[in-house]
Amino acid sequence: MEDVNDFETCNPAVNNRDSVREEDNGKKQGLSSETSSHRNITDHRCEICGKKYSSEHEVFAHKQIHNRKKSFQCETCGKSFNNNSKLIIHVRSHTGVKPYHCEICGKSFFIKSYLTAHKIIHTGKKPFHCEICGKCFISSSCLTRHKRIHTGEKPFRCEVCGKSFTQNSHLVVHKTTHTEEKPYPCEICGKCFVNSSNLKTHMKIHNRGNPFQCDVCGKSFHDKSNLTTHKRIHSGEKPFPCEICGKAFTQNSHLAIHKRSHTGEKPFYCEICAKSFISNSDLTKHQRLHAGVKPYRCELCGKCFRDNSNLTTHKRIHTGENLHYCEFCGKTFINNSKLVVHIRSHTGEKPYHCDICGKSFLASSYITAHKIIHTGGKPFYCQVCGKSFAYNSNLTRHKQMHVGGNLFFNCET
């Protein structure tokens, strides 16, 4: 399912409209300068989002976007919007209605601006070019971000020290220097640090009983073989290849698990829904879906996760580290797999097909959720009252009835 909740900020076509308005304003300012050269126009900036305007009146009008009350609520999920048109578009994400169709590939969209932006892909054109270096882009928003390299513009300003940045993600990382945020935790004792180098120094405290230390990250091990295996994470060495598909692994045990994907062997079964898995760790993660348990909590924002790897990936939102950018629209993702799925929304590729009704999907998780429609299953149950739901998101909303809206009541800290 495509995310339409933030269509104004993520969609290049919508951003293009904003850019056109800015260009029109620029032309008007230029005309004013020609006719009244003595007039000194000062830039006025919105302190909330950093956007610049030519007068304080325009800034005031713009701020209404931030201050506007969200009185239009979705009856399905409860999300609110500041006008009815946005609510109508959002409701389509629940109903699946996509009234705008591409006549070239047949792909459908929730809103017309998505279709307009999508059509550029078929032309192969990148109509927005940088007049300084000649590099071309698919949308004006991507070009605007690129131009900051040449102009030195840094619209994202720290309200504490005044330092400015070209991207908001860089500002987020910088803000940790002023706050108590320490996004690098020690896996052994839980102590947190503001950067990885401080964490590496701290790890030496725990290494006294583990004489074999990694010179890259500081982690230590009680025997040399474990250190050798660990170092492959940093070197990228994968000496255990699969003779069927060629995929390689750092450990032989990982290869053994992988081979089950070829043989179809899934020896680990869920007692609740009878779903089977190729490894015990996959089964453990799956069982947390039924129980609603999310034991891994982010100390920065309080969000909880079912496994530690998801928490580690999530923390990149706060640190800005290793983000993946979409070359079509500039949207960022915390892992490459989500970027791959997102790019399919631009290309129209839907490689996952339902063998019952033939409907196609962007990602395997989408088709898994879709098949529940055919089976009628409700594998997600509430531990408090026993009520069952078809989707985990519905279970999450239901739980708020028991805990007064606290989404993180299952987090074990």
TrEMBL record:
Compartment list: Nucleus
Keyword annotations: DNA-binding, Metal-binding, Nucleus, Repeat, Transcription, Transcription regulation, Zinc, Zinc-finger
GO biological process terms held by the UniProt record: positive regulation of DNA-templated transcription
InterPro entries: C2H2-ZF_Transcription_Reg, Znf_C2H2_sf, Znf_C2H2_type
Basic and acidic residues composition-biased segments: 18-27
Main location: nucleus
Record bears the keyword Nucleotide-binding: no
Highest taxon of source: Eukaryota
Family matches, as SUPFAM superfamilies: beta-beta-alpha zinc fingers (SSF57667)
Renumbered residue ranges of the record's region Disordered: 1-39
MF (Gene Ontology): DNA-binding transcription factor activity, RNA polymerase II-specific; RNA polymerase II transcription regulatory region sequence-specific DNA binding; zinc ion binding
Pfam families on file: zf-C2H2
PANTHER family in the cross-refs: ODD-SKIPPED - RELATED, ZINC FINGER PROTEIN 208-LIKE
Protein name as catalogued: C2H2-type domain-containing protein
